Fold this sequence. Notes:
The chain has 371 residues and is an alpha+beta fold. 45% of the residues lie in helices and 14% in strands. The longest helix has 21 residues, at 170-190. The chain is globular, with a radius of gyration of 23 Å.
Amino acid sequence: MRLIVLTLLALLALPAATAFAQSSRSVADRLPLFARNNCRQIRDPGNQLFCGDAELAAAAEKLSTGIEARLARLPDRLPGIEENAIWTRQRNLGCGIVGQTAIRTDDFDRVKACLLKVTEERAAIVRDPDFDCLAANTAAGALICADPSLALTESELNSQVLSLIGKLDPTAARFAFAEYGRWTRERDRKCNLVGKENVPLGELESAEDCLAGYLKHKADEIGAAKGDPKKVFGRQVAARLPDSDAVDFCAARIHAANSCGNFLRINRVYALDSQVTEQDAQVTGEIEMAVLAPFAICSKIATTCTGTCWDAITGRPQPGIGNKERSADAFNVTRRLRIQRTFAFVKAADGWRCREDELAPVNSGTAGGGS
């Protein structure tokens, strides 16, 4: 998992492309590692400097180490990844790098000094655990970060969960991570905080008791397990009702089974419609996913983890594309994908069990947003 995250961060900082414009040659002589590291393959002028200069590369390595440690502390990596992507764009603008315009030789020393300064400052900031709350991008996350007691409880819960998952084999750990993500989404639905990111915190104070209760319940559950992850994860195989929780359970299981968590995070799940009989149910749900690492819009990852190939121009599902027609276009990090799909459930003694083993075919979908 950490390797995937570090690869993602490298892609954010050093986006690869075809040969850069000839105008970039003016700074090549100032970069000792330019030829050895094949920096001409990098399109972004600022990232060429990080590629070709040893001092900048060392600062970037320290920042990468700090980011890795920070993401390991966060219960949800996506906000931290998004915040880092925004910082990278602001870093370039702040140091006078605009788009893909080549850095002039006369500006080289000034731009390098600026990049070095802001990177070293950023490395110091991300090492501070108090900075983690700035990555919260949900209403629940903002409420938790605004309350020291809730923030401490969540931090302790996260550490306990990660410790438990660390005792599992890779396959079981994958399912446990998916289940942990589902806990968070279930919490937000239960506390009526879904889609309220732009609501003032003062209007959401009534949800604080709900958040505290949910966090305490999970902490007590983990405490009762006495260090045994199998007493916490993998026990629930059915949903209580054929609703949003049931769709979430089904989607999370499919993602875990196919290692989709390396590339996508399920962000939100909604049940839009349902048809329920005594023993069977058809529930149409909407699933919003965010891209954690780039992947081709028509690839095994796309079809397995989003249920379809996609049209790069319209951002709509484009199913049924053969291998010869597969596109090299890729989804960028933090891109948002939404799919609608009808899931089949059957009533069992322990609740409603999902009968689906894959997300395909989807009923409809959209791809938008992100960097």
